[in-house]
Fold this sequence. Notes:
The protein is of the alpha+beta class. It has 16 helices and 7 strands. Helix 7 (171-177) links the parallel strand 5 and strand 6 (182-183).
Amino acid sequence: MEKDTVSMYFVRAAVAKLPPPAQLQALAAAGIPAEWLGMAHARVPASAFSALWLAVGRALDDEFFGLDRRGMKVGSYALMCQAVISCTTMERAIKRILRGFAVFLDEVAGELVVQGPRAELRLHNRIADAADRRFADETFLVLTHGLLCWLIGRRFVLDEVSFAHPRPEHAAEYTRMFCEHLRFEQPLTAIRFDAELLRAPIVQNAETLQSFLATAPQSVFLRYKNDDSWTARLRRRLRQASIQAGETHWPLLEELAAELGTNPTTLRRRLEAEGTSYQQLKDRLRSDLAIDRLVSSQASIDELALELGFHDASAFHRAFRRWTGLPPGAYRRREQGEPEREMR
């Protein structure tokens, strides 16, 4: 099973409305070191971000991170899910979800627009601060899209996502969250999809809803990722290479392009359009694999370095510190709750 991690951007945004002492408490509850807030390229396990979302919600009594002036009191999302579960089609579910958000929020609202064969879910966001407005759009879309995927029991395929804000540094995250066709600096944030999907039947029921809510919010933002993007296809191929080889040999971009029936230039261009590159993709996967193996295995640092395709342990040390801000041994000790030692 692929191990998922979440960008530190979302961690910083999640705790932004908490006062410093409450930030420390929420981060501690999620097992996320406070010093990581200053590490731009650090990533945390999805389970840790899920725990953080819950901790921030409890601290603010707001499941929408304190972004809207009214806010969503704890329990609002579950109440909305319970109201939606009786719907029979996707269209009815979307309309009921949007009505639910209209009840809970003042400054962010959604609108369903159908024009012939295309449908759009448009966001109207009146939050003044630009960073808050962007995170509110992201949160609204994650909560809505994740719920819709679960309701129909499969990925709710999006044709395009437009954002009202400029392309951010974490734009590559959007390709896995939503789809690979992204547009920025648009008049409105919106998701676009085939209107035929509005007729899709709801396959969940009150019994399955309890399991869904028991694992929320992780069940919301991870259950149905975009597995059709070029980024996801290459990531699957690279992960296969990491499993099959004892001492990992990462394929060359030219080899992968040939396997996928394209050429290296086109593949580079497609990855760039999704906000990433082959090197970034390898580093991201190595980082995820290293974090998982450090926490879940007793393999030595030297063994992990070889597994991940590094020439020696020192190269692995340097890369891991660049990814997380800590040496691998210090990261393992922290995760296992051992006393801190002096870092080299």
